[in-house]
Amino acid sequence: MLPTLTAAARRRPPRRAMLGAGGAFLIILSAAIAIRAPAPAVGAPAATLAGALAPNSWAISVPVSWFAAPIAGLRPGDRVDVLALRPGDRASATAVAFDLVVVAADDRAVVFGTGADDATALGIARASGQLLIPLLRSTR
What we know:
Elements: H1 14-36, H2 49-52, E1 58-63, E2 79-86, E3 92-105, E4 109-114, H3 116-127, E5 131-136
């Protein structure tokens, strides 16, 4: 005759129950932290130069040597207009670029965020031998 095939219910060791409860606690804790984690700030600084530009705009780097009278202390976010001066007997001045946004500036160059028309006007004015004068706009 065959022996009976019944299985007796075994008790879980207390150590295994404690490990299971600790693991469940850690999973619940990590889910709660993930839900409450703050979202990245909307106005956070851009990681790249392209990220700092406004939509549908370009960056143009203008060497400080192009300016007849450079402005010291430009900071990102400043707004600048640019005049082009034609020196000589019949000197003239023309506004060539309006509301350029300073994206970056140092002692060698200023990077402006601008549209295509203003970037082209700056290049044409410089290529024709005109002197550029930046005009810093007031914030008030």
